Amino acid sequence: MSIEIVRRLADLRSVVGGWRRQDLVTAVVPTMGALHAGHISLVQAALARADRVVVTIFVNPKQFNAATDLANYPRTEAGDIAKLQACGAHLLYAPAVEEIYPPGFATTVSVAGVSQGLCGAFRPGHFDGVATVVAKLLLQTGADLALFGEKDFQQVKVIERMVRDLDIPIEIVPCPTVREADGLALSSRNLRLSAAERAVAPRLAAILVATADRLAVGAAVATTLAAASAEIIAAGFRSVDYLELRAASDLQQHAELDRPARLLVAAWLGETRLIDNLEVTRRGVGI
After folding, report:
1. Positions marked active-site
2. What is the reported pTM?
């Protein structure tokens, strides 16, 4: 069966409304396209839990801090459609900007607390853009559950908080980060890396794993993170935006490892900003 493609809200609601009348469970996987194995893993997880799966592709202008970043974001719709067809997704919703933000659009969804610090400190307004578009996509699709990758861990926490606070009737399902064989977290931004940069990039995950291991057995947080930041620079990264230990539940800062935590990093490799994170507990480390 071919994947159905719609670009207008009225058509989306017509299709999903038909599913709902049949009492079919619907899942949505929101994306910005340039699909890779990480996205496909979300679709596969959605197919395991729902009767119908909607994938959205929308490059959201409200979550970019620089016009050049928006212009350079990879757009590969034909290839994306082929991948979605192959994995069995039922519907692609690929709206134009005007369908999401029609003339006169004047509303912004802003989530305090979990959006502050980390990427929120280095990308002003980014999470307002994320929360606004995700709120629209969840309401437009009327899905029963939505799946998001844990690579963007702060984003997941922002969305979970937004859904709770606004009483949006949907289950948010976080899914584990998918990695290359060498440990690099999959990301559409990896396409920007030169061959030389791609060879360096896996060092970020390797350093994160080693740092998490040290923290898990009781190493001092401040000195361990400072040493790891220096190691990232020595590995060939241009700069480190942050390397922090935060509470896994609410992203509060951790001075010591006394509850389940997340180790989060953002670093620049050339002109590409890479992010990653790992679970850390006293009993071990997850990747």
Report:
1. 39
2. 0.95
